[in-house]
Design brief:
By secondary structure, this protein is of the alpha+beta class. The protein is built from 24 helices and 22 strands. It has a six-stranded mixed barrel. Strands 15, 16, 17, 18, 19 and 20 form a six-stranded mixed sheet that branches.
Length: 803
């Protein structure tokens, strides 16, 4: 019986190819959108751990204050790894920024120095070559490096012969021993790591409490409990001899950035709205189709069929359509995920487990469940409506008269209200995100990005910050950088050039210490940059008061700085800071403020500006491994790239010249998140409008056709076409207006929920609400106009004669 119903259903669908195409297309769009967003949420938020047995793996942290949990010192790590009774494996990792040269495409990449058990603990396997071995950890062993898949593509263009080649990391020759698979994702917060080297802790590091901290992970023995491990950690902390030292072990968790999480959940809400609109459209199609076949249903009931059989066959038809859409949606989801993954991988490395965003079994199961629910939601009411008929009246009905039931019209009007409600919500959300992005891009951030080229010229290493260099060594390095600056200034087409100890919008923050001008007993740590005299001219940052640095001031005994507006506002309370002095706990000399400059972003365009000081590059060396060069050109700045490489490396071929980018490119990369959110929400809003427009047109046309007899009688009794037009339009627009009002009320809470995604934009922006309402109203009027006009032009003679 079931197979017979199935064959009958397939034949019926085959005879109605247009209906089947519309239904499958609407179904597949809705299911694919939902499945795509769920796949991203599942990989990034719900299930980001990709290594084996995460339940037995812990992270160990230390603290000397109430909530300031941080990395462990090398001495504590050494004490923990020497106790194998409770832990089967212990590993350590230290994040660093490596300058990679002597490769096809030199670059500066984040990476990890790890102990040899790091990959064993994660049960990782290389794609090419081998992993780190115990021999690599030995003192005096050759330096080796293991590449991520992305670093392999970026540095060696995916050449398999890269394994065994020699690359230079921070000036030290290292052999490439292997490449990790594309989907390898180490524990947070190191998902952004691009390469791995050996962690070799010297006796001095193991004994010094000032050594850089280590991220420590451990795997529990099968018989070890967390309370027992915590007791052992308490004993280690007590034996360390440090006041208030505490240790704790916690389970491995990935925690995506709050803004990323909010964006993804917002996207899930929007695709759920699209899914509801798609279901509403399909339900209205099925209802019209089912009611149009009520006479056939009456004949079948009269010849012995049961109502259950008719309902079952009607639901079979819906499920066949739904599973056809499921297959199409699965293919669409794979393509969409590939596009999203490639885009996000290109613009950011800060999304955990991004490489594992794919249509896996969990996503397929979710998609299958959504398909089942949609099929039931769309098919139940039309199936019940088509079979709840009186045989005598059903046998006499024609399609037009059968369609006029009030219950069906109320159901369809309810669908119109739902579509208007969801469409307006999506329009309002999209409008806010687009306006916020527009504000980010149009606001004067204190920079003039046009015609500016940036390049990093790193020297030394983040791993081995050498604090024992003499002032003469530092001045020698500064002189070398100034010589590079003069070579860049001499290039044809260069308008101005300057050096900076770190470049803005490059994911790096450097701070310095001063005593608070209002309280000499407390310290402040403003952002710090050491820059040369023309930095502000090159970057287009106005000097608001005082003066900037002068070239040739390296021998001056008086350190000087400039400050930004936020620094002056926060510590001088509206008074001019020019001429005031700052005291530093690291220096006996007072530092004079010689100027104040306009606020400009250092880390992120959308974050509040922080207090910042600018030191004289000729007097101070801050972070040579981050040092950059900025150039303002007369023409296209990228045209200087080749000449710049030649000029900066002709005297010293070992000088790294990496990450040559325009300032506009840095800005575009910095705003990827608001741009992506605005683009995604706009795409969903446009799709919702299209689906809603089609749905409104279909429902109004169906209702108007079902009321032909009523309109014919009204016309015969003297009603004018204009009156009939108003009646048809108003009765169709009423549920749309009701849904719109409910959408405006609901957005009161939705707007507050997404407020953290907005930049200088109010969630309750009246202009945005007015714009969204007008767009939806115009769409509704367009969709309603033609079917309402056709209903008003009915010929009463034809209608009554047909009746």
């Amino acid at each position: 019986m079931l197979m017979q119903d199935l064959r009958s259903t397939i034949r019926a669908i085959w005879r109605s190819k247009l209906f089947a195409t519309l239904a499958i297309t609407a179904f597949s769009f809705a299911i694919a959108s939902t499945s795509t967003v769920f796949s991203v949420i599942d990989a990034v938020i719900l299930n980001p751990v990709t290594f084996a047995h995460p339940e037995s793996m812990v992270r160990i942290e230390s603290a000397q204050s109430a909530e300031n949990w941080d990395n462990l010192s090398p001495a504590l790590y050494d004490a923990i790894r020497s106790r194998p009774a409770l832990l089967s494996q212990v590993c350590a990792a230290r994040l660093s920024l490596f300058t990679v040269t002597r490769v096809a495409a030199p670059d500066q990449l984040f990476g990890l120095s790890v102990s040899r058990s790091f990959f064993d603990m994660l049960t990782a396997r290389p794609l090419l070559g081998r992993l780190l071995s115990p021999a690599d950890d030995q003192a005096g062993a050759p330096s080796v490096v293991l590449l991520s898949y992305k670093a392999w593509q970026q540095l060696f263009a995916g050449n398999p012969s890269a394994v065994g080649q020699i690359a230079q990391l921070d000036g030290e020759s290292s052999t490439v021993i292997g490449v990790m698979p594309y989907d390898f994702s180490p524990p947070s917060p190191y998902h952004a790591s691009m390469l791995w080297t050996t962690l070799r802790l010297t006796p001095a590091e193991l004994s010094s409490p000032q050594s850089r901290g280590l991220q420590v992970y451990a795997r529990l023995q099968s018989s070890t409990t967390m309370p027992a491990l915590q007791q052992d950690l308490d004993r280690i902390a007590a034996a360390a001899g440090q006041k208030n030292l505490r240790l704790r072990a916690s389970s491995i968790t990935y925690d995506a950035d709050p803004t990323q999480k909010l964006t993804l959940w917002l996207a899930m809400g929007m695709v759920s709205g699209l899914l509801l609109i798609g279901c509403a459209n399909i339900s209205s199609l099925l209802l019209a189709r089912a009611i149009g076949r009520r006479r056939d249903s009456a004949i079948r009931l009269a010849t012995g069929a049961t109502r259950i059989q008719l309902i079952r066959q009607s639901l079979f038809e819906v499920f066949v359509l739904a599973f056809g859409a499921f297959a199409l949606a699965s293919a669409g989801t794979v393509s969409a995920l590939s596009l999203i993954r490639n885009y996000l991988t290109a613009v950011t490395t800060r999304i955990p487990n991004l490489v594992n965003v794919q249509l896996d079994r969990r996503s397929l199961l979710f998609s299958f469940a959504v398909t089942l629910l949609c099929a039931l939601a769309c098919g139940v009411f039309p199936a019940l409506s088509a079979t709840s008929i009186d045989l005598a009246s059903g046998l006499r009905e024609t399609g037009t008269r059968a369609d006029g039931r009030k219950s069906a019209r109320r159901f369809l009007h309810g669908l119109l209200a739902v579509e208007a409600f969801i469409s307006l919500l999506l329009l309002l959300t999209s409008g806010l995100l687009v306006r916020s992005l527009s504000r980010v891009l149009s606001t004067n951030h204190g920079l003039r990005p046009d015609h500016v080229l940036t390049v990093r010229l790193p020297t030394g290493s983040w791993q081995t910050l050498d604090t024992k260099k003499t002032p003469q060594d530092q001045q020698t390095r500064i002189a070398k950088y100034l010589a590079l600056l003069h070579q860049a200034q001499a290039l044809q087409g260069v308008q101005a050039a300057a050096l900076a100890s770190s470049l803005p919008l490059s994911n790096t923050i450097v701070s310095t210490r001063f005593f608070d001008p209002n309280s000499r007993s407390s310290e402040i740590m403003p952002y710090a940059q050491a820059v040369t005299a023309d930095y502000f001219k090159t970057m287009g940052i106005p000097v608001l008061s005082g003066q900037t640095f002068h070239s040739g001031a390296a021998n001056s005994n008086s350190p000087v700085v400039l400050v930004n507006q936020t620094f002056a506002r926060q510590y001088f309370h509206g008074q001019s800071p020019v001429g005031k002095f700052l005291l530093s706990p690291d220096s006996k000399d007072a530092t004079q403020i010689i100027g104040m400059v306009k606020d400009s972003p250092h880390l992120d365009l959308t974050e509040p500006i922080q207090p910042q000081v600018y030191l004289n590059f000729e007097q101070t060396e801050l972070t040579p491994f981050l040092t950059g060069l900025v150039i303002r050109s007369h023409n296209d700045p990228q045209s200087l790239t080749r000449d710049l490489h030649t000029a900066l490396s002709w005297k010293d071929v070992g000088q790294a010249v990496v990450q040559v980018k325009t300032l506009q490119a840095l800005i575009n990369r910095n705003v990827w998140q608001p741009r992506f959110a605005a683009w995604l929400s706009s795409a969903f809003a446009v799709l919702a409008l299209c689906l809603s427009g089609i749905g409104i047109y279909g429902v109004v046309a169906y209702v108007a056709t079902s009321r032909q007899r009523e309109f014919g009688i009204r016309s015969a009794l003297g009603a004018l076409p204009g009156n009939l037009l108003r009646l048809a339009a108003i009765q169709s627009l009423a549920p749309i207006l009701l849904g719109s009002c409910l959408g405006l009320l609901a957005f009161y809470w939705t707007g507050k929920w997404i407020a953290s995604l907005l930049y200088q934009t109010s969630p309750l922006d009246p202009l945005n609400a007015l714009t969204a309402a007008v767009i939806l109203l115009l769409l509704s009027l367009t969709a309603v106009a033609y079917p309402a006009w056709r209903a008003s032009c009915v010929d009463p003679a034809i209608t009554l004669r047909h009746d």
